[in-house]
Amino acid sequence: MNSKQKKKSPIVVIVSISCVLLIAILGSVYYKYYIAQSSVLQNDTKNEQQSEESDEVDGTNKVDDPNSESSVTEPPEDNPEKKPIDSTTESEQPSTEPEVVNGYLVEQQPATEPTYVKGVLIVNKKIPLPANYNKGEDPTAVAAFEKMAAAAKAEGIELVAFSGFRSYEYQTSLYDRYVAKDGKDAADRYSARPGYSEHQSGLAFDIGEKGREDVWLTSAFGETKAGQWLVNNAHKYGFILRYPLGKEDITGFMYESWHFRYLDGDLATKVYEAGVTLEEYLGIE
Ligand SMILES: [Zn+2]
Q1: Ligand 1 centre distance from Cα of residue 208 (Å)
Q2: What is the pLDDT of residues 100-113, one digit of tens each?
Q3: Model pLDDT for residues 43-91, shown as the tens digit of each residue
Q4: Considering Cα of 13, then 19, then 21, then 23, what sign does the dihedral take?
Q5: Rounded distance between C-alpha atoms, residue 201 and residue 106, angstroms
């Protein structure tokens, strides 16, 4: 008997322990369910009396039955409480975005270093050069222009680079003069503020045709034989039409049929073949 009892007793113990555990599990599940249900009722009446316990339960409520909670109990309070959190984070984004006027960042500090994007010196309305960036005409760019001018001359077109490097000081006097003449908003469309002119890089040229000074600095130049020749051939010599027609919102400047930018290597050809602006090609916002 003793030996039988000893053999049976572990089974009895295991079964009884299993029963106790099962009851305990069922009990705890029911208890959680009960608490969850009762907390819904509590939330209905006592939102302010949320204890640490009901915070935990609150989390399960939101996952379990968000619809019944919001539709039955408190839709007018609950939804406005949740949605303003989203809308405030959304409305914070525009307010934290820098203010832009005529393409310029209102609170931008003067540059202390030139900016290179993927190895390319960039000057635009959001990326200025330091006032002391004063390297003059880039000799490689000048040589490239002369090579291009020789090729054009062979086809009966005499190109003139009538404006190249401009110092920060010179651009200041130029811009101030335009502002006095046409006002700041108009001047910002066709002339860069000091520090923001690509001419300060020594890599930009305003190009015209000798004998057609009447269309220099006008969009009409782009329709002349010389202007068309440049559009189709400048990239072969390392130049791109920097401010194409219809891209003012990207480049910040109105169409300038005369303004060409020198780029190293075959980058000009790549930009030309991509049919995009320099900003787009380099992924500059
Ligand atoms: Zn120019």
Answers
A1: 11
A2: 999 999 999 999 99
A3: 443 343 443 333 333 333 333 333 433 333 343 444 444 444 444 444 5
A4: negative
A5: 23
b/e sequence 93-105, b meaning 16+ C-beta within 10 Å: eeeeeeeeeebbe
- Note if 97 is an active site residue: no
Residues, Cβ < 5 Å to ion ligand 1: 206, 259
How is residue 23 written in tokens?
Answer: 């009851």
CATH number of the 104-282 domain: 3.30.1380.10
Which whole-number Å values give the CA distances from 258 to 30, 90, 189, 240, in the listed order?
A: 81, 42, 15, 10
Q: How far is CA 109 from the centre of its chain?
A: 19
Half-sphere exposure of 61 (CA within 13 A, CB side): 22
Which amino acid is it at 235?
A: H
Domain residue spans in the chain? 2-96, 104-282
Ligand 1 centroid to residue 204 C-alpha, Å: 6
Mean pLDDT, residues 201-220 taken together: 98
Amino acid at 143: A
Q: Which of 256, 273, 279, 285 is catalytic?
A: 256
Cα distance between residue 108 and residue 116, in whole Å: 18
**257 C-alpha vs ligand 1 centroid, how far in Å?**
9
Confidence of residue 262 (pLDDT cuts 50, 70, 90): very high
What is the rounded average pLDDT of the residues 139-144? 98
